[in-house]
Specification:
Layout (H helix, E strand, L loop, with lengths): L5 E6 L7 H11 L3 E6 L9 H8 L3 E2 L8 H12 L2 E7 L1 H8 L6 H8 L4 E5 L3 H5 L1 H12 L3 E2 L3 E4 L5 E5 L3 H12 L9 E6 L4 E2 L5 E2 L6 H11 L4 E6 L11 E4 L3 H11 L5 E4 L6 E3 L10 E4 L2 E4 L7 E3 L3 H6 L4 E8 L2 E7 L2 E8 L3 H11 L4 E6 L11 E2 L1 E5 L4 E3 L3 E2 H12 L7
Parallel strand pairs: 1-2, 1-4, 2-3, 4-5, 5-6, 9-12, 9-14, 12-13, 14-21, 21-22
Antiparallel strand pairs: 7-8, 10-11, 15-18, 16-17, 19-20, 22-24, 23-26, 24-25
Length: 425
Amino acid sequence: MLQNKRVIVGVCGGIASYKAVDLVSKLQQAGALVDVIMTEHAEEFVRPLTFATMSHRSVYSDLWEPSGTAAETHIALAETANLLAIVPATANTIAKLAHGMADNMLTAVALATRAPLLLAPAMYKDMYTHPATQENLATLRKRGAFVVEPEEGRLASGAIGPGRLPDTTTLVSAIRMVLGKHGDLAGRSVVITAGGTQEPIDPVRYVGNRSSGKMGYLLAEEARDRGARVILVSGPVALPAPYGVELHQVTTAVQMRDVVLSLVADADVLVMSAAVADYRPENVALHKIKKVSNEGSVTKDAGELPIRMVLNPDILGELAETPKDPLCDVPTNGKQHHSTRRLLRVGFAAETEHLIEHAQSKLHRKKLDLLVANDVSRPDSGFGTDTNKVLIFHSNGVMEDLPVMPKTGVAAAIWDRIVPLFGTI
């Protein structure tokens, strides 16, 4: 997504400007061509040499240097940029942008470029919440600017409140999302499930599995970066919520089923990467089950703990029996045309033996469009790993055997195969 993208990072004169150094470094490492433009006062906080070292490119700041070269350069930068990200964006620069001022290199480029504008405000809390700043941000949003909201927390002044610049991971995610808003999933709504479910035995214990949720979360980020509206339904995981993704957190399989069924009516595709428990305890104890029992004055082990398990709902199985959903009547040449839509459904199969046979059976039994299968007993493909080795089964009988690759690459490969399917429904 960032490879060879021309990203201008504008740095304003605020204490958070030092955090922009890490952002420039991460963008450059991801393959972006990063040009840094600093305001005069930004140089009071961080020296241009620091950004030049991180970006491996020249740093621009003085629009009025005597040779006149900068006057030509600001046009060239504006015309070739894929994105202008101002990090941090101070109240002063936000006001200048809202009123169309171009009195320095950064604001001149901002006025000249037609690239998307991303702003990451960072300032003292009362400056951020001031009506003038909020009105200026509203004006810029109306013109199409994307604003990464500041976080609440301890500010440089010692005060607590909104105004903190988000961390680099959030900023990079926002940049990727803005760059991909016209991607091959633009206008699509996708529902993705991730993680495992936990089926309670009592208020303390549960039956679960070892799913980390990594694959599902990366699928959500990849879809976001291709322009989709992404809804993520997640079981309990130790992962941060992906930026720009609508997150629904659930615990049990029944909860996941109910949430998914409430969401898919407006979705184009459902990707069920969650490891949903097949069974749950039939009865859940109201209080913690004790290991020992008391009989009179004697304390002894309670003995065995038999737990009767019952089947959980089969989410994809239920959807397999759902007919095409009618859409609204669409006028065509003055007549009402009744159109239909179908939800694309993608399943996952985590196996430890007979992978191909089990995967093919699940694909046909649940009438899936695609099924992604992996052998979780492999050290490079199991739960919690950063790599995966998958086979992709298509409804037409084609099977693809993908090599071991990072899960980010697997996520991209899966969406590469889903996108063409939209043309078949």
